[in-house]
From TrEMBL:
The lineage of its organism: Bacteria, Bacillati, Bacillota, Bacilli, Bacillales. It comes from Paenibacillus solisilvae. The chain crosses the membrane at residues 12-32, 71-94, 106-128, 140-163, 184-207, 243-264. Keywords: Cell membrane, Membrane, Transmembrane, Transmembrane helix, Transport. It comes from the Bacteria. This is Carbohydrate ABC transporter permease. Pfam families: BPD_transp_1.
């Protein structure tokens, strides 16, 4: 009797969650199916999902005519470099702050945390001046440095919480074996932080892959260096909009993000849970 009593509410909860999931993913499914329609069908079909005939030419137009083949690899280069730089900086910072007590530690954390409340657009002028002074304007390296700059408070705090929860005996054993700061960090502590590394990599990959402001500002004079986010402008004309090409381009942009998340999702969940627990 007890089992029957709980089966109804649990089934109802599952149905509600399934319905909520369908509503949540419907826009993404609609975008994928819209990328396979003709322009006339796209305009007249409303919320209908299935196209009458699959139009794979939309993807060919987005990849070749709209130069997404170039923008795609520009985005890959920028995103991978930014993720690597941020992982290195945030992991080292989180390790130093989480495992050591030093003068000015609280002031440093407070200053870094304060950058969370500063909109990214407010710093575009000093960032542009700095990158331009380095002679990296209108280059992928300028975009990389601009995207990798900033406090990245969330990732630093995730590493701080994770490293703080690791046993101190690990470092003591490394010191006995003659291991220094960087060797201990690189060979012992960092490999244990795979969940936080995956969490940082997924989130920063997503943000950088979809970035618009920085790539736009630092590639104004060189359209061939645009990333996918900026390249979406190719589908907007003076009086018209290529909606099906736009949907195909958006679908192309979405695939790498889904692939990275599916590859690292287990570590992503462990990283968030471990950091919160820490």
């Amino acid at each position: 009797m007890q089992r029957k009593r709980w089966r109804g509410p649990r089934l109802l909860l599952h149905l509600i969650l399934i319905a909520a999931g369908i509503v949540w993913i419907y826009p993404f499914i609609w975008m994928l199916t819209a990328s396979l329609k003709t322009t006339n069908e796209y305009i007249s079909s409303g919320i209908t999902l299935l196209p009458k005939k699959l139009q794979f030419g939309n993807y060919e137009r987005a990849w070749e005519t709209a130069h997404f083949s170039v923008y795609f690899w520009n985005t890959v280069i920028v995103t991978v470099c930014v993720v690597v730089l941020i992982l290195a900086v945030c992991a080292l910072t989180g390790y130093a702050v989480g495992r050591f007590r030093f003068r000015g530690r609280i002031a440093f954390i407070s200053a870094v945390t304060a950058t969370m409340f500063m909109p990214k657009g407010y710093t575009i002028i000093p960032v542009y001046s700095l990158v331009n002074a380095l002679g990296l304007n209108n280059s992928l390296w300028g975009v990389i440095l601009a995207e990798a700059g900033g406090g990245h408070v969330l990732f630093i705090l995730l590493f701080v919480a994770y490293f703080r929860g690791l046993p101190k005996e690990l470092e003591e054993s490394a010191e006995i074996d003659g291991s220094g700061f960087f060797r201990t960090f690189a060979t012992i502590m960092l490999p244990l932080a795979k969940p936080v590394i995956a969490t940082t990599a997924i989130m920063q990959f997503m943000w950088t892959w979809n970035a618009f402001l920085m790539p736009l500002v630092f590639t104004l004079s060189k359209p061939e260096l645009r990333t996918l986010g900026v390249g979406m402008f190719q589908f907007a004309g003076e009086n018209t909009m290529d909606w099906t090409g736009f949907a195909a381009a958006a679908s192309i942009s979405l695939i790498p993000i889904l692939a990275v998340y599916m590859l690292l999702q287990r570590y992503f969940i462990e990283g968030v849970a471990g950091a919160v627990k820490g």
